[in-house]
Amino acid sequence: MARPENGKLEKVQATLDSVLESVDKAEEFVIQEAGKAGFDEDEQHQIGMAVRECTVNAVVHGNRYSKTKKVHLDIERSSSALTVTIGDEGEGFDLSSLPDPLAPENLLRQSGRGLLLIRTFMDDFDLHPRPGGGTEVRLVKHLAKS
Amino acid sequence: MSAKLTSRQVGDVTVIDAAGRITLGDGASSFRDTIRDLAAKGNKKLLLNLADVSYIDSSGIGEMVSGFTTVTNNGGQLKLLGLSKRVKDLLQITKLYTVFEVFDDETTAIRSFH
After folding, report:
1. Residues 6+ apart with CB under 8 A from B107
2. Smallest Cα–Cα separation from B79: which of B14, B4, B26?
């Protein structure tokens, strides 16, 4: 199991077009890095799905498939955690505007479950305005101490 | 691989065998169209077999819910068969276990419609 030495960060960055193919790319990148960090297969799947859901939000809701806007993916791998930052160049996003997908009256809604999955699968989730415009989501998954 | 859907008839139950990935832009819309077509043709008892589905994201879950609503509004039933542990986990997280009837065994699932 290859883990970076204590305290050392390994970084991967990618700038992706606002197309659905970028969602698969982001997921592939992060699963690869999660594997290198030492996460098991189930954890890799969960991290991959969380990043997939975030990237869908960035492409579809943030950048609205704009050819001129990009999705910014940063992955940092340390000996204790994987940190993923996904930024879009959209018009911002208000978390409090989202309905609770677990409320009985919302169970049969077609959409709105992405953030629930992200929060379930990752240890930390933070959403804030991106410097220069847009929204940035920061996800952290800690490695279990072996 | 995107989702591949085939349907077969077992008595009066239509079994939809799904395979591949049910994700945004990668099978979710064909999934929705197939269920809507079957419901529009008057199929009231639908069993969705997910045994060969390797991956479902939140869009895929949304399509399953949409299919459930379409079939139910048509006076029919949509039940699920052969869920992997990961898909079962997704239904738990989203509380959709309280919505869908889920079966591990096809014979039991078919019998449940009668």
Report:
1. none
2. B14
**Domain boundary assignment for chain B:** 4-112
Which of B26, B86, B99 lies closest to A108 in CB terms?
A: B99
What ipTM does this complex have?
Answer: 0.89
Identify the residue whose tokens are 């677990």.
Answer: A102
pLDDT at A146 over 70: no
Return the HEC string of B31-52.
Answer: HHHHHHHHHHCCCCEEEEEEEE
Using DSSP bridges, classify how beta strands A124-129 and B77-81 pair: parallel, antiparallel or unpaired: unpaired
CA distances from A126 to A11, A113, A118, A136, A140 (A): 19, 17, 11, 8, 9
pTM of the model: 0.91
Which residue type does A103 have?
A
Taking one residue from A and the other from B, the number of pairs with CB-CB distance under 8 angstroms is 54
Pairwise pLDDT comparison (B33 vs A78), residue with the higher score: A78
CATH number of A10-142: 3.30.565.10
Please list every residue in chain B whose beta carbon sits closer than 8 Å to the beta carbon of residue A107.
65, 94-96, 98-99
Burial class (CB in 10 A: 0-12, 13-18, 19+), A120: middle
* Domain at B4-112: CATH code: 3.30.750.24
Task: For Cα atoms B45, B51, B57, give the angle at the middle one, nearest 5 degrees.
Answer: 95
